[in-house]
């Protein structure tokens, strides 16, 4: 298998890259299970010391995935939202740059070129199980079910709602059963 980190073509059946020691079997793991996140938000199996995607050192303690996810409409890619279980969590959604890294980085998605660095904020209240969204004055706008949001105004989001970051990148908000 070819290593996603360093690009080395490894021998058949090898579980860790022979050059950089990244786990090669990460994509065979069920991401619904408990796991470990690196600082960039990539999921890794329990016991991993370095991220299999970006190579960064990762947290040692196991955590459960957040039940709040965004699903890209075109590819079906699932983006888990970070969550502080005890209080309201404010999550910045956007694209990373050398100066800024959002809590939810959309730059890996195909149609992310029109997403602002600090595009929108999701406000998650785990106690009430509610989520809201606020456009942060993005260049190309944020849309909820096709309606453009007024910048800096807070809107309630429901499971199944489509959030569009510009008119091109469409994600469906879902709450996964735990």
Brief account:
The protein has 178 residues and is mainly beta. It contains no helices and 13 strands.
Would you write up a description of this structure?
It is a single chain. By secondary structure, the chain is mostly beta strands. Helix content is 0%, strand content 29%. The chain contains no helices and 13 strands. A 6-stranded antiparallel sheet has the order 4-3-13-12-9-10, with no helix packed on it. β12 and β13 form a beta hairpin. The relative contact order is 0.13. About 3% of the residues have low confidence.
What value does the Rg take, in angstroms?
Answer: 17 Å
Number of helices: 0
Work out the number of β strands: 13
- Percent of residues in helices: under 10%
Structural class: mainly beta
Layout of SSEs?
Blueprint: E1 36-37, E2 43-44, E3 68-72, E4 78-80, E5 89-94, E6 104-105, E7 120-125, E8 130-135, E9 142-144, E10 147-148, E11 154-157, E12 162-165, E13 169-175
Parallel strand pairs: 5-6
Antiparallel strand pairs: 1-2, 3-4, 3-13, 5-7, 7-8, 8-11, 9-10, 9-12, 12-13
List keywords for this structure.
6-stranded antiparallel beta sheet, single chain, 29% strand, mainly beta, Tumour Suppressor Smad4, 5-stranded mixed beta sheet
